[in-house]
Design a protein that fits this description.
Radius of gyration: 23 Å
Strand order of the largest sheet: 1-2
Order of helices and strands: HHHEEHHHEE
Number of strands: 4
Number of domains: 2
Largest sheet: 2 strands, antiparallel
Shape: elongated
Length: 162
């Protein structure tokens, strides 16, 4: 799991733990608890998400975090047959929580970033990095101040839009 996502989940936990008693309180309505989650916890977790490349394992970890917060908000449910208290299943949480799961905003942010970059002029370096394909060998540059070779791509070797 990339370090950025791990650190974001740790930060989300750091913001979740001080308010977890508030989220499980019966004195607050559920709408207020959801607003607390959306304004305090989720922005911390999703900061910079448009640059993440997420695998299925990371998606699962993000959904687990969100479900833990939602279980705290919605509480336990009494089973109709045995009359015992049990945790809500993921499908029940999805039915109760009207917003999409935590992975969907990440995909939307990535698409919006890609669309914004596609409006750039073809000569801009950002566009060339996003769309271009490097071809040929990378040219060696001059030596830097400390005697090492300066390592960077020169964009004139990239075919843009190919």
């Amino acid at each position: 799991m990339p370090e950025e996502i791990k650190s974001r989940l740790k930060s989300g936990n750091a913001f979740y733990h001080p308010v977890q008693n508030l989220l499980s309180s019966s004195l607050l309505p559920k709408n207020t608890k959801i607003k607390i989650c959306r304004t305090i916890i989720l922005p911390v977790v999703l900061y910079g998400c448009e640059t993440w490349s997420i695998t299925l394992k990371e998606e699962r970890r993000l959904r687990m975090f969100q479900n833990r917060v939602l279980r705290r908000i919605f509480g336990a449910k009494r089973d109709e047959v045995t009359w015992e208290w049990r945790k809500l299943h993921n499908e029940e949480l999805n039915d109760l929580y009207s917003s999409p799961n935590i992975v969907r905003p990440i995909k939307i942010e990535k698409n919006e970033m890609g669309e914004a970059c596609s409006t750039y002029k073809k000569r801009r370096a950002v566009y060339r990095v996003l769309v271009g394909k490097p071809e040929g060998k990378r040219p060696l540059e001059d030596l830097g101040v400390d005697g090492r070779i300066i390592l960077r791509w020169i964009f004139r070797n990239w075919n843009v839009g190919a």
